[in-house]
Amino acid sequence: MTYELILGGARSGKSREAERRAAASGLAVTVIATAEALDDEMAARIRRHQADRPAGWRTVEAPLALAAALRREAAPGRCLLVDCLTLWLANLLADAVTLPPGADADALPAFRTERDALLATLPVLPGRIILVANEVGLGLVPETPLGRLFRDEAGRLNQAVAALCPRVVFVAAGLPLVLKEGWTASRRTHREIAMDLPAEKHVMTVDEFLAWEADQPERWEFFNGEAFMMAGGSDVHNLICGNAYMALRNSLHGTPCSVFMSDVRLRLAEAGDLFYSDVFVTCSDADRARRQVKEDPVLIAEVLSPSTEAYDRGGKFAAYRRFAGLKTVLFLSQDRAHAECYSRTAEGGWLLTEASGDSAGLALPAFGFALPLAELYRDLPADPA
After folding, report:
1. What are the pLDDT digits (tens) for 364-378?
2. Which pTM was predicted?
3. Which residue among 49, 190, 237, 338 is the active-site one?
4. Per-residue pLDDT for 112 more than 90?
5. Closest CA to 347 of 83, 106, 116, 76
6. How does pLDDT run across 86-100, given as a tens digit for each residue?
7. Which of 47, 150, 226, 247 is spaced 20 to 30 A from 53 at the CA atom?
């Protein structure tokens, strides 16, 4: 899989750059179009875009259900070009006029559901994905509350998608400027993201990292030659981790599998990367003989936090998928009873299933049982925030 985000202002040449990249891929191209022809001027714009594209390209319209369209159309040997995320966001915010003053867009169920589905789907799509979006926050502050809400949500969406994409390009005056090339170009540590600090580089070998970490009072992960300090967790984060640990341990009782929390580290042996995963399961004889570090996880669960979600879903998830025996990755929301399960398929892809609400259960196909969300989210404060 290869995916990239191309940003730019109006008439900057961003769509032309995206089309150039898609054509250069040599793959069959499908355009996922999000615009709706609600007036004559927009209809004319859409016709111009369609006329400029090569005749052999397919077009699929997805003004709202973008994640579903991506899952349906993505395939090895195919390039999907999404043009554009910003119009899709505008479609989702059409009902924002009903929000009370100062309300967050998350109060719109359709917006939150579709945004979360997109961010959950992007990391596991096969083939090549090119996404186009407007950078709308460079001009005047919008005059209306709805305009300011749209500007803010567009900026947040661009940041979240950029964190998931190995390649990000900004286009101005028809000239592409590469902002990010590879996972490490703009990734920041947990603490730096939370405190909005610039990234601090700690490039070293595994042996240098282990020697350096022995003298540090904090816990650190090691990924692609850099050290990342682990953020302190909230009480809600800790409770969900503990609940997941107990639910998995009870379900796996009597099997050769063991469940661990973040005091035990995972090592991706081929790369030397070291992680403190929130909860993980291992069933191998080799791991039973190891005491400080495990290398053969079959399940990993991460409880998502605002400061770490992009890293967990992006570079960290990409690294996790390199564990040869890994069957399942879980992402557990912290602000509501919602869980995502990524299951490795026989073809090597990853299938997403979700569960929401205290009465739901999250099926784990690789293990033959389901985890009740009531167990994962038990004993939480009435207001998790």
Report:
1. 999 999 999 999 999
2. 0.60
3. 49
4. no
5. 76
6. 999 999 988 777 777
7. 150
